[in-house]
Design a protein that fits this description.
The protein is mostly beta strands and 73 residues long. 8% of the residues lie in helices and 36% in strands. The chain has one helix spanning 67-72; strands at 4-8, 34-38, 43-47, 50-54, 60-65.
Amino acid sequence: ELATDEGALVAVSPAAWTYADWPEGVQPPQIGDRVMFAQYAGRIWERGGVKYRILKDKDIVAVVQPAAMAVAA
């Protein structure tokens, strides 16, 4: 099994996904998307009883379900 976790993208830095080798015509993950990321990537941060994981943009490996599809489901 791959060592991955899944979560909802709740915020994105303006500097995320701005590197020159981003594939042309492919939209980067958006707030609200369900994404997969490396299981031990980033850092857990708790605020107001809610746990968040702070990740580098390159730690996100896939969009599981785009936000538009998540609302319709």
